[in-house]
Amino acid sequence: MRWILSFHVIFMVAWFAGLFYLPRLFLYHTTSIDLISIQRFKMMEKKLFYFIMTPAALLATGFGLWLLILYWYYYLHAGWMLTKLFFVALLLAYHFYCGKLLNHFKHDRNPFSATFYRWFNEIPTVLLIIIVILAVVKP
Questions:
Q1: Which of 15, 50, 68, 132 has the highest CB neighbour number within 10 Å of its CB?
Q2: How far apart are CA 55 and CA 9, in angstroms?
Q3: What confidence tier does 16 reach under pLDDT thresholds 50, 70, 90?
Q4: Taking the CB of residue 19, how many other CB atoms lie within 10 A of it?
Q5: Total number of domains constituting the chain
Q6: Global pTM?
């Protein structure tokens, strides 16, 4: 069980690293004007999303589900866990929306301003705080 939990936390940290960095790349991409920088940001965003974030998200979710299955009876009656799962679902939605934004950038159709990405970048921080408090404090 501790090994499963360890891998869940490791992949969660890797996933969050990407969730913190990708919107920042979107911000820098939005403010870029030269073609070389734009192409560089497209490559960095693609590699981050497909080679780091998505595998980490899948593995963090997989190990989390494994833990959930192992202790389903306990978690069934734990309100904090149901609340945590709701916020994890929001986090997954954020991840998929990042993928949608990545596709917009790929086709040079960025629909948002730099200000949007400055605010958008804060969402995973808020979700991390909520999820960690729920998992550690278990209110």
A1: 15
A2: 14
A3: very high
A4: 23
A5: 1
A6: 0.94
DSSP 8-state code for residue 16: H
H or E stretch at 97: helix 79-106
* Residue 138 DSSP class: -
Which is higher by pLDDT, 78 or 18? 18
Phi, psi values for residue 77, rounded to 5°: -105, 10
Place of tokens 């999303």: 49
Rounded CA-CA distance 19/30 in Å is: 17
Q: Give the CA angle between residues 30, 90, 40 to the nearest 5°.
A: 25
Range of the domain at 9: 2-137
> Can you tell me the mean pLDDT for 32-47?
96
How many other CB atoms are found less than 10 A from the CB of residue 5? 14
% pLDDT > 90, the chain: 92
